[in-house]
Structure formats: structure tokens, C-alpha cells
């Protein structure tokens, strides 16, 4: 896996749980069994229908507006650091393609909130560090430690971490 192969899901999992990222990179993909994932997909499909998703290969973002802001729709009722990191990653990808991206707009339909994060040189630097952290995690010979069980509520990977 190279830097160009790191996508938004990798970044999200890095921030949620490095063990989740490590398992995902090895082809363990139980997301289709998760009701939380299905709920997120339903929110995504029913929000902002006129927008067209953009496929950048490893990264798939919801849409970019005419002023070059990346828009991402999130199903959670509480903003997470992973949300901003994922948006920052998409901005870096677009910037590498020569698009003068302005930043990320995160939409939270469940709480009717929108958050805007400009893409600054500091954000670009952090996005590069995130890619390095993903590569370090997925190339590790053993999985990272599991998080405390209380943090695993709703995670599709719970059975892989907590079944003895």
C-alpha cells in the first residue's frame, strides 16, 4: 500500500481505532453487518440528492461546490475528529490534482448542523502526517491494542476484538 492508496475510510479508521484500520487493511470488512453503517448509508442516500459523489480512486467524497469547498454528509449526532480528518484528506487529494480547494464543509443532518474548516497549510501538513500514520499502522506486523470496550459500542469490528 502506497500513499496514493490511502483513502478516506483509512483516515476515518485511524482516528476511530487503529486496530480497526489494521483489520480493514487485511481485508476484514464486517461493515455490511452493522446497523450503524446501514443507518449512515441511509442518511447519506437521502441527504443532498442533487450532488454527485466524486471518485478519486482510493478516496470517494460526497461533493465539491462551485467555490471548491468539499462537502461531506455525516450520520452521527456528534461531530468527531475523524470527520475533520477525512475532509482534510480529501482536500489534500484535490490540492494534489491542482484544484484550489478552500476547505471542508461537514453536514450533520441528524442535528441540523454544519461545520466549516478552511484548508490551511497546517491542515495540509496534518493530512500528510495522517497518511504516514495510516501506512505505519497498516504495515505493522501485529495489530494495535484494542480500545477499552466502552469505546467499541456500535463498532462493526467488535466481534474481531472482543471474542475470546
Describe the 3D structure.
- Residues 8-162 form the DUF83 domain.
- It holds the Pfam family Cas_Cas4.
- This is Dna2/Cas4 domain-containing protein.
- The chain has 164 residues and is an alpha+beta fold.
- The chain has one domain: Lambda Exonuclease, Chain A, CATH 3.90.320.
- 41% of the residues lie in helices and 14% in strands.
- The chain has helices at residues 8-16, 18-25, 35-46, 81-96, 121-138, 158-162; strands at residues 54-55, 60-61, 63-64, 69-73, 103-108, 113-118.
- A four-stranded mixed β-sheet has the order 3-4-5-6, covered by helices on one side.
- Mean pLDDT is 86; it is low at 34-44.
Radius of gyration, taken over Cα atoms and rounded to an integer in Å:
16 Å
Describe the biggest sheet? Answer: 4 strands, mixed
Helix run count: 6
User: What is the total tally of β strands?
Assistant: 6
The CATH architecture classification is Alpha-Beta Complex
The ordered string of helix (H) and strand (E) elements is HHHEEEEHEEHH
Number of domains: 1
Shape: globular
Question: What percent strand?
Answer: 5-15%
Q: Which CATH first-tier class would you pick?
A: Alpha Beta
Q: Mean of residue pLDDT?
A: 86
Helix content: 40-55%
Question: Which stretches are poorly predicted, pLDDT < 50 over at least 5 residues?
Answer: 34-44
Task: Output the CATH topology.
Answer: Lambda Exonuclease, Chain A
Strand sequence of the main sheet, in spatial order? Answer: 3-4-5-6
Structural class: alpha+beta
